[in-house]
């Protein structure tokens, strides 16, 4: 799993549909997820730390969690099937832990309100992410090729062996 942050909300140039854009910690990969207008407003409200005069649905959920001593540990966007993303809320209440199925847009809106981590399975990122910094990706590939090309098979085996001091 890879932890990601909300980079913002964008509009698809063709359809004008909102997209929530997640980025990894290195800002090298972005994961665009199409969402509805209401979810975009909820995410934007959380990003801008807006406090509505009355609780909206995501605020109500957070209030419910607080009232019942429930903690949102993290959200996980765990799969992509037929162009639909799937997520879970990872909740805890004392020793009890539960995962609840949730739309990613709702999970993100709640995570932003609770400062919970947003995690995405690597398979989802591999299937649906877009490169952000192609130059850095190419530099990393070149550095790796240079490193490997200068190693003999014996050196490569020696470096690959487990060393408790190096973890």
From TrEMBL:
SUPFAM superfamilies xrefs: Hypothetical protein TM0160 (SSF103256)
Domain BFN: 1-132
GO molecular function: nuclease activity
Superkingdom field: Bacteria
A family per Pfam: BFN_dom
InterPro entries assigned to the protein according to its UniProt record, in alphabetical order: BFN_sf, Bi_nuclease_dom
Name of the featured protein: BFN domain-containing protein
Taxonomic source organism: Aphanothece hegewaldii CCALA 016
